[in-house]
Amino acid sequence: MGMNWDFEDISIRAVSVNHAEDIYCYGYLISGLEGTVYYSGDCYQIPNNILEDFQKGKINRIYQDTTEFPSSHRSHCPLEELERLFPEKDRSRIYCMHFTTDFFEKLERLGFSYVKSE
């Protein structure tokens, strides 16, 4: 199921994502004058079509909820999966967010960006 919203200079498309078996979650493709951004919502993996569009340059940035370590109860994307998916040259365009622990230094060392709260 997809939902779309179009405004004058921006369009938003909902993308079904995996978070937990009993919870429906969505990520969002947000397109406007400065390109396209993917906001993961709350999910443990990045959909293949999103990865492909990022690799083709159709998506400029990804905002992905990230957990420092993998767990048996997957609900957020493990950092090691992002390391595997994205070469170092692309990691600055991946913004990690929605964490429960402080691993900012590790993210910086690996070349990822992160959402800073003020």
Overview of the structural elements:
The chain is globular. The termini are far apart. The protein has 118 residues and is α/β, with parallel strands linked by helices. 19% of the residues lie in helices and 37% in strands. Strands 1, 2, 3, 4, 5, 6, 7 and 8 form an 8-stranded mixed beta sheet that branches. β2 and β3 form a beta hairpin. The chain contains 3 helices and 8 strands. The mean pLDDT is 86.
What value does the average pLDDT take?
Answer: 86
SSE string, helices as H and strands as E: EEEEHEEHEHE
Number of helical regions:
3
Low-confidence stretches: none
Rounded Rg: 14 Å
Q: Give the overall shape.
A: globular
CA-CA gap between termini: 35 Å
Q: Strand content of the residues, in percent?
A: 35-45%
Main beta sheet: 8 strands, mixed
Structural class: alpha/beta
How helix-rich are the residues, as a percent range?
A: 10-25%
